[in-house]
Amino acid sequence: MRKLLICKSTDSLEPHGSVPPRIVHWRRDIQEQNGETVWLPCVAHGYPVPSVRWFRQDSSLMTSFANNHRITEQEGMLVIHRATLQDSGKYVCVVNNTKGQEQVHTVLTVRDNLRASITPSHTVVTVGTSLSLRCEVSGSPILYLKWKKNLKPLVLDNRIRQQSNNVLEIANVRLGDEGMYQCFIYNSEESAQGSSTVLIQGSSPCEEPHQNIGLFSPTPRPIMFLAKKVTLIVYQLS
């Protein structure tokens, strides 16, 4: 007589009871190049299986991505197609089930290649006048900007100043200000530079103080000829 043995498992692949959601994988910071596809992961455990939603946070405003065909949610991941510089910012992943909720955030930085140039690229200025050089920049992110002269760091003072709008101002120009000026921009991945050649010319002879030139004769009958800032005195002979 055979006996039939019946085996019954008392364990379940599902947990006994509900478990609050817990986010186990995400990235705090992501950097990607302009125009690329960006993937923001958010993996959560819990029971019942938690739902995952993504939002963009601007100040206190949380914006969802409903009806946005370029930015989509796929199995807990936020996918940004053809990323632009404007996509840089803070993104929030929110997971919840019947037992609770948890959220984390990811900071996305979309980069663009750095470029720099100086306007004007070549200039001639006169001693005693002023000079302005503007560093035109593009790309992102730009962490800081630095000026150099003849490949050496430019020393700033009360006469040579760097304005907040990337403009270098030089007052009361001197002959020693002549040279090649460069502006460098940097971020953690790359740098770029622009350059400008500055030539300094001295004062024109016509800008010298008045001078008197005299030709003397026995008869003191002067005839005066006036030139530009030069007085010529000639005495006529009898």
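That was protein one. Protein two is written in the same sequence-then-structure order:
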Amino acid sequence: MNKKLHSTINLYNLLLDIASHPHKYQKSAIGAFLKSQGSLARHSAPDKNIYPCSLNTLKTRADCFLAGGFEAMDHARISALKACSPVVVLISAQDKPRTLKDDVIALKKEIQFLNEEILCYTIALETSMEQARTYAKKTNNIVNIQLCEKQQSEIYALLKYPRVTTND
């Protein structure tokens, strides 16, 4: 086996190892070379027999030496990036102490988002209930109209009273 083959296979194995054991790579700056295919190709780790090359060269080598070709290499890169993302976020959150003010700001943003979401659902519900009333009236069937009114009043009653939640 030559140096090029070893380098490509070692890079692929490194990606698989990062994806399966992200905690081993917490302190290293692995996120930088996982962000793009080009930075992956330029990654160098002589201690692990991984040497940099151009992206086209890496694609060609991966297609020749790996089962699944470069698609498998890129999939391993994306898996490693996803596996490391929570670890990196946790580390950066630990470096900066959160204050109550930060918590309040985050909660206000979440409340605003939820209020907007509720507004969207309310508009959708009102529109569909109005359409149901219109269709029921178009039938000129008193049973359909009464059934529609009964079901809509039950829905409004359900939404009117908040559900009781228990704190476990």
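DSSP finds seven helices and no strands in the chain. Keep this in mind for the problem set.
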